[in-house]
Amino acid sequence: MNNEQVKQMNGGEPIIVAEKLSRYYKSADTIVKALDGVSLCIPRGRMIAIRGSSGSGKTTLLNLIGAFDKPSSGSIVVDGIDVSHVHGGNEVKYRLKKVGFVFQSYYLIPNMTALENVMLPMELSGVKSRDREIRARELLEKVGLDKTREVRKPAKLSGGEQQRVAIARALANDPPIILADEPTGNLDSKTGRRIVELLSSLASEGKTVIIATHSTDVAAKADIILEMLDGNIEGASASG
User: What CA–CA distance (Å, rounded) separates 236 from 160?
Assistant: First the structure.
């Protein structure tokens, strides 16, 4: 894939640039190439679908963007930050300020209410108690969670409601990038479509939304589709 192709599809400068990005793991006597020399540019303010089967490298790429993992070689620059070289407190700050995460299994804290789950990232960032409560309520309203549900703990919420809370939590510190790993995988098709529409609306508001998915239907809603296979990007296309 040519970096210029993705730039030209949407115009403007990219928010993420990876050059010859690789992540290798050792499994017994075998080297697993989870990512193998990937180069890409992701435009700011668009919804990007990274499509591929299990083991294609989608999640590994998201983990590297989110600084949950480090590359074996190559570089990745996110919103001006060389993520491969952030460590310690700077790494924590990066995750709190630059990226929000939405996962297939939600990963809400079970003993906290929906409201408390959304407030937590702001607490970690030092936002005052009253301010984080106000913003958390605003975000839960934004993602369409009924006010009567915000005092419920995750076990008392449906899958779709939990995912809405997870999206609100991802937005808590107003990061420019939202990373979503198979966000509709545990949802029925109707609820899944609503979640994808919600993520798409965030891109229309200026967020860069990157979704790892195996679903053709989910990918079709994105502005750009990146096809992954065996740790490589096999192609890029503009949806529609």
Answer: 30
What is the layout of strands, in order, in the sheet containing 47-51?
A: 99-103, 177-181, 208-213, 47-51, 224-229, 232-238
**pLDDT digits 0-9 by tens, 8-60:** 444 567 999 999 999 999 888 899 999 999 999 999 999 999 999 999 999 99
Helix (H, G, I), strand (E, B) or coil at 40: strand
Q: Name the one residue in this structure whose structure tokens are 């509709």.
A: 184
Distance CA 196, CA 217 (A): 10
Decide: 228 and 202 in contact? Cβ < 8 Å: no
Q: Per residue in 89-125, pLDDT tens?
A: 999 999 999 999 999 999 999 999 999 999 999 999 9
Residue whose C-alpha is closest to residue 76's, from 177, 158, 167: 177
Strands of the sheet with 73-78, listed across from one edge: 30-43, 14-27, 73-78, 81-82
Q: What is the DSSP letter of 42?
A: E
